[in-house]
Design a protein that fits this description.
Keywords: Signal. It comes from Draconibacterium aestuarii. This is Lipoprotein. The protein is mainly beta. The protein has one domain. It is 13% helix and 47% strand. The chain is built from two helices and twelve strands, in the order H-E-E-E-E-E-E-E-E-E-E-H-E-E. The strands form two sheets. Strands 1, 4, 5, 6, 10 and 12 form a six-stranded antiparallel β-sheet that branches. The longest helix has 16 residues. The radius of gyration is 24 Å and the shape is elongated.
């Protein structure tokens, strides 16, 4: 009788003590999407032209699923996708200079270790619809590498530049990434 009770207790407790090994490793494509508010200030006035400086920033953490759609848990690796783009809306003049800077902080400390400025290439002509798009695939490799090394780090993206018009608008950034993650079995836990 005691042996039978021990046997049934072992059967009942076995699923609770089972290892949580991953069934498979899967890849999921997702996009980091940001809206960056831009503020403009007049930097210098000449007799013929005015120059304005604009800037804006955003912060995110991939592990917290900030600004990420369909981002899985249990992240093992992050790889760059293709088609990263920065789009400026309501452009009514020339953007003479455009730079991006990014930094990281562990634990959301607020003290970001900023990396060097990156000059972004602007398109030659302004489209009729007033929006300007810049391809970011080539310049985001170090950023994706930082996210891959520590998905729990907080990232700050800073956009700044110069224009010949007062540019108070928004910029939209979209960064496709491929996330390699563990697929864990569904089991009952207490």
């Amino acid at each position: 009788m005691k042996l039978r009770k021990l046997f049934w207790m072992a059967i009942v407790l076995l699923p609770l003590l089972a290892c949580n090994d991953p069934d498979t490793i899967a890849e999921t494509e997702t996009k980091l999407q940001f809206i960056i508010p831009l503020n403009s200030v007049q930097s210098q006035t000449k007799a013929t032209a005015e120059t304005y400086s604009f800037s804006g920033f955003t912060t995110f953490c991939l592990a917290n699923k900030d600004n990420a759609r369909n981002c899985p848990d249990n992240i093992l690796r992050v790889m760059p996708g293709s088609g990263s783009v920065l789009t400026f809306l309501n452009v009514s003049g020339d953007i003479s200079e455009l730079k991006m800077e990014w930094g990281f902080a562990s634990g959301g400390s607020g003290s970001y270790s900023m990396q060097g400025e990156i000059d972004l290439m602007l398109p030659e002509e302004l489209p009729d619809n007033g929006s300007v798009s810049v391809n970011l695939d080539e310049v985001l490799a170090p950023l994706i590498s930082q996210i891959d090394s520590n998905p729990k780090s907080y990232i700050k993206l800073l956009i700044k530049g110069n224009t010949d018009f007062e540019f108070t608008s928004i910029a939209q950034m979209e960064i496709p990434i491929i996330v390699e993650h563990e697929v864990l079995p569904v089991r009952f836990t207490l």
